[in-house]
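Tokens as discussed.
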């Protein structure tokens, strides 16, 4: 005989806590990872997802991560990252991340090419990149400019 699932300690009227979804490549297709505040327990996470998003939750596993500190010369310890809790939620249906937008890939390419040029300059090589890299950077920059112009045109229409 199974007992009914009890609700969490915090009543959720309006969502005042933030759940951030985390990309975790090692999880099964029906599992999703969230970064939640340390005060949330398993019951709170379960009730939040079922009541607000209507997700059928099978299991919730949580892990606590402590705040990380680093030592600063002269000023003592400084907090680098806050404490958080990671929750791995098993749901009924397989979850699939949406495809990354094209502009994310363009910005990543632009960042990689810029980093390559900066490294070349730091190592004492000539600053000017080879012809193929310059052509690739020019293509990426033009594509980003077109996207930005299209977005600004859409915003003016609204």
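Sequence:
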């Amino acid at each position: 005989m199974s007992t009914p699932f009890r609700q969490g300690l915090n009543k959720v009227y309006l969502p005042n806590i933030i759940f951030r979804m985390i990309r975790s490549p090692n999880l099964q297709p029906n599992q999703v990872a969230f970064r939640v505040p340390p005060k949330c327990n398993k019951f709170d996470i379960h009730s939040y997802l079922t009541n607000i998003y209507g997700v059928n939750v099978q299991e919730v596993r949580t892990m606590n991560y402590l705040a990380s500190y680093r030592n600063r010369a002269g000023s003592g310890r400084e907090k680098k990252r806050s404490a958080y809790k990671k929750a791995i939620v098993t749901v009924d249906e397989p979850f699939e991340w949406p495809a990354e937008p094209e502009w994310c890939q363009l910005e990543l390419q632009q960042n990689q090419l810029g980093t390559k040029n900066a490294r070349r300059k730091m190592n004492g090589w000539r600053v000017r990149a080879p012809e193929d890299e310059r052509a690739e950077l020019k293509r990426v920059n033009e594509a980003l400019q077109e996207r930005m112009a299209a977005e600004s045109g859409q915003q003016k229409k609204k």
